[in-house]
Amino acid sequence: MEILKTINNNILVSLDEDGKEIIVMGRGLGFGKKAGDVVDDAKIEKTFTIKDKKSDSKFRELVDNVPMERILAADEIIEYAKKTLQKDLSDNIYVSLTDHINFAIERAEEKAEFQNPFGWEIKKFYYREYLIGKFALNAIKKRLGVKLCEDEASFIALHIINAELNLDMSHMISMTKMIQDILDIVEGHFRIRLNRNSIYFERFVRHLKFFSQRLFTGKAIYEDKADDGLLMLFTMKYPDAFQCAMKIKEYIFKTCDHVISNEEMTYITVHIKRLITEVANN
Q1: Which pLDDT score, from 0 to 100, does residue 193 have?
Q2: When you count CB atoms within 10 A of the terminal residue's CB, does the N or C end of the chain come out lower?
Q3: pTM (2 decimals)?
Q4: For residue 228, what pLDDT is reported?
Q5: Exposure on the CB side of residue 133, measured as CA atoms within 13 A
């Protein structure tokens, strides 16, 4: 491979077999090298191919200022996440997670670590991604000798979730807050404490995740195909659950300027009825 550009002593830009630009990393790989020189294949430790041009540009700028071991640690975590979740992640994860890990380590060294206000919600609503965050803490400790606080597992999970959905981080945080706010509405309306270990709770949260994801990605949540008679039936059969669903509808309209459809109202009412029935029976 021929060097197109040297970023620093360890990182350079080259071309792959298809003539596409790639970022190549290895200790001393770029030392004393210039454009036109041949890449020393024996020193290559990692190659990055980032298709999104905006992410690629940001990543090149980032790797020039972040220690190579931290970049490789982030890559290990990303590859583990892809394998665990069995799905592709947005290219922006290479920028966001690498930058976050670098900053988290700097804060840890200065003893200025942050607490995640949504730590519990992330652990409960996105448990698979949270476990990836736990893996990340172990990988960072093993590879870099730095022990990050437990809250960092949920911070890292947020970056993984964001890359899964290809959303802005602010949207991801808003989604998490929305789910918790809706659960608070249910508990406040009935003055109960929901059983967070029940299958009905898990199903409701799963439904709310689907709802909020589609809401924040701008996709239609449901076409309003529901039979008005069916919704009317549930209104009469489960009046308390329906009144609670109406509070949720008002909350969504107030916070997102979105009107929940009759079909969505039917689903929410049924979920709420199952939740409160379970609490009443225990």
Answers
A1: 92
A2: C
A3: 0.80
A4: 64
A5: 24
